[in-house]
Amino acid sequence: MSHLDILLPFGLPPAELASDLLRALKAPSLAMLLARARLRHQAFDGFARALPHEAWLALQFGLPDGTKAGGSLPVAHSARQAFGLPPAAGVWFILHPVHILAASDHLVLIDRRHLQIAEAESRVLFESARPLFEEAGRQLVYGDADTWFVRADDWGELHTSTPDAACGHNIDIWMPKGDGDRNWRKLHNEVQMHWHGHPVNEERAARGLKPVNSLWLWGGGTADAQNNPLSPATAGPYTQSFHLPSWLQTRAGQPAATMAEVVAPGTEKRLLVLDTLIEAALAADWSEWLTRLHQLEADWFAPLLAALKDGQLERATLLASHNAALSEFTVTAHSLRKFWIKPSLARLVP
């Protein structure tokens, strides 16, 4: 039976704004799909170290959900391979060059999507930080301008948070905790001091860009923690996946331009990740959130409704989330025939 799962991070509006946002949202195809679907809702801890959609993805692809024990998603080895780096022994973490904003009485992690770090800038900062890591006995490896990796075998019990879980909040409760946290803070502070007044940041300031003044550490784990070989044959429960995040891209993830490509014959169960709402939601830019959701209606939800009605798909499940909940809406060609159920977006409010 052909089945499509669509993961929509931050597709659920915040409760305090839901009535106004849903009144402004014009998405008739989405309203039809939601109203005639079977609904299953799951609440999450709003202070967990990974967002609900991140934990769901990790579960689907066989990665241990360490967040249930206050830990982390062990995705660094998967991310390393997504960047074409060879398999390596030991405990590895992901490192993102980031900007930490000093508010009146706390520190806030700014969304790294806004930082616009150029490759040349990142290379210079990487080379300036590497001696500090080597002095501390840590191996630092470059992935791309936004993503580096560090090996720290004695930090296997260090609990870290995904950057999107921490973004926009007081970072105190989201900082690494556990074995090795003091060593990390010492190394982290040394890097921050080294980058303060660095020529790269002075040049960025002259262009009106925020300085790169910190590093975000997360995703630590061993290769054994990611128990499936990363190949198209081990794409989790899916025969085909589209638009996976970078830390899962080696698991048969691929781009897709249209719904027609996603529902093309030949595969049984597919996964499509639509992540365009994350940036607007993290910034609390709800006007932009509406704009992007309207675009998703045109590009994906209207074609999805047509594919179900035309028999190209037998079943679809939309998984919409925010920081503390995930709702599953499962709709079939049969359930769409329930003409007495009026289209409505109300079920987006858990």
Overall average pLDDT: 90
- Lateral arrangement of strands in the main beta sheet: 2-13-12-1-11-9-10
The CATH class of the largest domain is identified as Alpha Beta
Largest sheet: 7 strands, mixed
Q: What is the string of SSEs from the N terminus onward?
A: EHHEHHEEEHEEHHHEEEHEHHEE
In DSSP terms (H or I, runs of 4 or more residues), the helix count works out at: 11
CATH architecture of the largest domain: 3-Layer(aba) Sandwich
CATH fold-type name of the largest domain: Alkaline Phosphatase, subunit A
Helical content, roughly?
A: 25-40%
- Structural category is alpha/beta
| Overall spatial form | globular
The total strand number stands at 13
Terminus-to-terminus distance: 29 Å
Determine the CATH superfamily of the largest domain.
Alkaline Phosphatase, subunit A
Task: Provide the low-confidence segments as ranges.
Answer: 227-234
Strand share of the residues? 15-25%
Query: How many domains comprise the coordinates?
Result: 2
